[in-house]
Amino acid sequence: MSTPPAAAIPAGRPRVAYPPVFGYGFRPFFLLAGVLGLAYVPWWVGSIAFGWQLSSDWPPTLWHGHEMLFGFIVAAIAGFLLTAVPNWTGGRGYAGWPLMALVAVWLAGRLAILSSGAWPVAVTAVLDLAFLPLLGFFVGGALLRARNRNSVLLGVLALLFACNACFHWALAHHEAPLAMHAVRAGLDIVLVLVTVIGGRIVPAFTASAMHAIGHVRAASRWSWVTPAVVAVMIANALAGLLDVAPGLAATIAAAAAALHAVRLVQWRAPLRRMAPIVWSLHLAYAWLALGFALKAFALVSGSASAAFWLHALTIGGITGMVLAVMTRAALGHTGRPLVVAPAVTAAYLLLSGAGAMRVFGLGVLGLRYPLVLLLAGLLWLGALALYVLTYAPILTRARADGRPG
């Protein structure tokens, strides 16, 4: 993606200075996503393994599920949209005071939840729910004016808002199973988004990298694969929402696993010759195929070795794709070469290690659950720490090429 021009300054008005971190939409949200992920997962693991107290009065598992979805993942989605929409529509970028206000709303939601015992339930809900509609307002005008095909993403934001609203209603009425169901529904929506966006950027970035190394073999293009995999992912989301019979859910999951695998095969990337910034995308996408295969197997067999399929999708697939996209976009949009530091390559591997430990530590390795959580948490901590330490300077300083943004 090329960087759109910075927001225009009206003639006759003095230029208002703001820190570089508010110079473009991806900057604060990619940083905040990393910081939240770095802090919240170890905190939750500590609450389970060592009895650490959370400052929120929410049940720990619900707090963890909600904040990883509506805090961590939604922050990354916001950074992506605020960067991609100007590129898609040819409009100006989001920067300055409006961006600061959007960040403040996101932060208000996180702080309200952290101190939820001090507020009426409605106050916490309103502060948390405000972010997605405001994000939709920010990006919706440009998308609708341009009649851009990506306007469908406004529907994704609306569905995520509905899931969050359902979560807060269920929490207020002490309906913990419904609250967790709302989180699962939100994750299924995100998986559809990852499937669509991943299907665009992974082959595009791979083809660019192949061209750069002189690899001229064209990737196979099977036109039926993309609509089929998107349809199956939508079916998976509906199956989860409606809580269909295990046999039907397993059939849909198996179809999703097969189609994601077919997609990887058709991209035909020579991964041994690819840079980490490219193979990290393929690694994250491979977790989708594995996660759905494990889901199908678990639903059919009840096997403990496949019972943690959800973490294959959330840690390996969703977070892997988030990390791969954030590390690439931050370099490209700050005027830096698209080459990640060795520490970031290690972060990609540590994150996959965290996913593998969380998925296979109990059923395959036979480790005790607290130890699995601790080891997976340490691997996650290492990955997110390396990301934040490497990218905080990049995201908070001016562009390397001196351009605005």
Structure, described:
- The chain is mainly α.
- It has 2 domains: 18-174; 200-399, no CATH class.
- It has helices at 26-49, 60-89, 97-114, 121-129, 131-145, 153-172, 176-212, 225-242, 246-267, 276-301, 309-332, 342-360, 369-396.
- Helix 1 (26-49) packs antiparallel against helix 13, helix 4 (121-129) packs antiparallel against helix 6 and helix 5 (131-145) packs antiparallel against helix 6.
- It starts with 25 loop residues before the first helix and ends in a 9-residue tail after the last helix.
Q: Ranges with pLDDT <50 over ≥5 residues?
A: 1-15
Sheet having the most strands? none
Could you say which overall geometry the principal axes of the C-alpha atoms support?
Answer: globular
Order of helices and strands: HHHHHHHHHHHHH
* Structural class designation: mainly alpha
| Helix-residue proportion | over 70%
User: In the residues, how many domains can be counted?
Assistant: 2
| Structure annotation, total helices | 13
pLDDT averaged over residues: 91
Rounded Rg: 21 Å
Total E-strand runs: 0
Percent of sequence in beta strands:
under 5%
Q: State the end-to-end CA separation.
A: 14 Å
Topology:
Layout (H helix, E strand, L loop, with lengths): L25 H24 L10 H30 L7 H18 L6 H9 L1 H15 L7 H20 L3 H37 L12 H18 L3 H22 L8 H26 L7 H24 L9 H19 L8 H28 L9
Helix pairs in contact: 1-2, 1-13, 2-3, 2-5, 2-7, 2-11, 3-4, 4-6, 5-6, 6-7, 7-8, 7-10, 7-11, 8-9, 9-10, 10-11, 11-12, 11-13, 12-13
